[in-house]
Amino acid sequence: MNFMQSLWEALGSLTTNKLRSGLTILGIVIGVASVIAMVALGRGVQNSVTGQMAGVGTNQLTIFSMGSAELRNPQPLTLDDAQAIQEQLSASGVRQVASQLSGSALISYGSESATSNIYGVSANFGSVNNLDVIEGRFLTEEDMAGQTSSVVIGSKLADKLFDRSRGLVGELIRVEGQPYRIVGVLAEKGSSGISMSSTDDALLLPLTTAQTRLMPRQRRGQVDILSVEVANVTDLDRVTEEVSQLLRTRHRTPVGTDDFMIFAAKQLVDTLNQITSVLTIFLGGVAAISLLVGGIGIMNIMLVSVTERTREIGLRKALGARKRDILVQFLSEAAVLSMAGGIIGIILGWLIAFVVGLIAAANNADINPAVGLDAILLATLFSSAIGVFFGLYPANRAANLQPVEALRSE
């Protein structure tokens, strides 16, 4: 008997009792589905975050203002801090420093209006964060110095207000009732950076304009975020320490009681990779238990099958079937069972990941589950190996039956 004949006979035997076969492979299905779903979602999140970090570059440091319970009077970040970092640490690898002030405001054009994020930004904010302008220009140093009413609008916000993102340069809009003129339209980019904020649905105006017109008097001169572009990614750790020391000196804060927080895009990616690895190992352990249970189930059902088909085995041996033929047949049945469980598990795992991805997308989370060919092949081969391993004992037991004793069996 060749392999294909054994395979067809195995399929025929298993389909005679579909319910029992289905229940037998349940453990395999759960184990493989959990692995596939976790790997797909993990890779989706990893690719999403890596892409967002790549949008601003892994050579960027992001500095936030932060209160401290141990400090009586924490100091906010200021434009002077940005200038000090730029001037004093340029020789250490700091290429440029961008400043940002964040808020929200009612933006209107004619009868259309929307409450959206507004960012007061420095002139180099676009280059530091890799923003592209599809029409017009970005904000300039002249806009900063003159505290002009020039604004750059995100493409999604433009669609909300104008139903288009082209031909908008020169249009007049109102921010909290004050007139501003559009000088540029940003290309759509999506969420990016440590804060995962998006400029697609936002309005950008000169930082000095935002400070004087839209912020309370006590906040003038302050900024929320400083983005530091480092020339070489290998210098991130050293530059981070030097920036920390400089800000501690300027804010007069001791080590360990900082009123600021520094994040590196590369650190976030590395942390995410570590979390994904830990979750993969954990889920791998859960899947291994499910596969073990599934394998034991296969062994159990194959032993029952050997008992039920003892007379059939004896008859086949009496008609000339070799020990090897019986062994191959029962191993084929075990392998087909486990492979079927693996295939169903792969499909189920992909569906779970796909549904989770749709739910995430509906909640504005950018997750695109990715099922790699390597994961599919590994799941298929591993589930088949489980079947062969746990089917070996029942197959040997069937192959070693004596024809005379088997034929006497009731």
UniProtKB/TrEMBL annotation:
All residue ranges annotated as the MacB-like periplasmic core domain in the record: 21-245
Molecular-function GO term, any one: transmembrane transporter activity
Superkingdom assignment: Bacteria
Keyword Ribosomal protein recorded: no
Domain named ABC3 transporter permease C-terminal: residues: 286-403
Family from the record: Belongs to the ABC-4 integral membrane protein family.
Protein name per its UniProtKB record: ABC-type antimicrobial peptide transport system, permease component
Source species of the chain: Levilinea saccharolytica
